[in-house]
Specification:
Elements (H helix, E strand, L loop, with lengths): L9 E7 L5 H12 L4 E6 L6 H11 L3 E5 L6 H14 L4 E4 L11 H9 L4 E5 L6 E3 L3 H18 L11 E4 H6 L11 H12 L4 E5 L1 E3 L11 H43 L4
Parallel strand pairs: 1-2, 1-4, 2-3, 5-8, 6-9
Antiparallel strand pairs: 4-7, 5-7
Helix pairs in contact: 5-8
Length: about 270
């Protein structure tokens, strides 16, 4: 990758569903703060006219592209479609960014600089030192923070914010992941991608970002995140710990066999 933090080989994917007012604002901020990058808007047939507005933005700017999908297929499917589109067109770095302004385009360079320094996946984290959340009620912060603490304990990935959606990927990581096998329970695909990346030995890093609650429109997050996502993580965690136990047992068995053979050599009367 180029030594530049952002260049024309970088694609920022912005999924949309009913973001008519937010979309022009976030695109303008992104074009101002990172004019080198290309943008792909993935619209899930928004009934409020977001798709048509995206087409207008694209017609006026050759670096803005639009993908129209039929029906509301969800965030995971939108990103998977965006990744496939970007990989087919040989982008070196592919990024996730929300359309509602919660991910500051002005902080994109923090993620891209880490990719330029060798990272395969960089997560914009709310919960590492320097990261923060603006305009969230206390109960939502506690739910998110507590959920991430539980996820990290269950999976042992060593990451503070595995549910975060502000990310930059090196294409080689996305090519190595079974993207068509990801769980679509809640928003758990974000956790699964980070977990699989760590398990495969890729360089996963976090940088502090400021997450700002949307000012226009309604959040797409609902209670399914807690119920479905954490249930899925619990399954993975139990499996992960089970595999760890098997490996430990294997190592202990091998050690015991070695010690016994060594003991027999030292004691030929046996």
């Amino acid at each position: 990758m180029s030594n530049q933090a952002a260049d024309a080989s970088t694609l920022v994917i912005i999924p949309t569903y009913n973001e008519l007012e937010n979309l022009p604002l976030i695109v303008d901020r992104l074009r101002t703060s990172a004019p080198e990058v290309d943008i792909l808007i993935v619209d899930d047939n928004s009934p409020d006219g977001t798709g048509a507005r995206a087409d207008e933005l694209s017609a006026a700017d050759s670096q803005i592209h639009v993908m129209h999908r039929e029906g509301k297929g969800g965030l995971c499917a939108a990103y998977m479609a965006g990744f496939a589109w970007g990989l087919e067109r040989e982008y070196s770095v592919l990024c996730e960014m929300d359309a509602d302004g919660s991910h500051a385009p002005e902080q994109l360079h923090l993620l891209l600089e880490e990719v330029a320094n060798g990272a395969d996946l960089v997560i914009g984290s709310r919960y590492v030192p320097g990261g923060r959340v603006v305009n969230w009620p206390k109960n939502r912060w506690l739910l998110s923070k507590g959920g991430n603490v539980y996820i990290n304990l269950a999976l042992g990935a060593g990451l503070s914010d595995m549910t975060a959606g502000y990310r930059a990927f090196r294409r080689e990581l996305l090519e190595a992941l079974p993207l068509d096998e990801l769980s679509n329970a809640g928003y758990i695909f974000q956790v699964e991608i980070a977990y699989r990346a760590v398990e495969l030995g890729f360089d996963v890093r976090e940088v502090p970002i400021t997450f700002t609650e949307r000012e226009i429109g309604e959040s797409k997050l609902d209670g399914s995140f807690v119920k479905d996502s954490l249930l899925e993580v619990t399954k993975w965690g139990l499996n992960h710990r089970g595999e760890q136990a098997k490996e430990l047992l294997k190592e202990m068995s091998g050690l015991a066999k070695y010690e016994w053979n060594h003991f027999k050599k030292q004691n030929t009367w046996l």
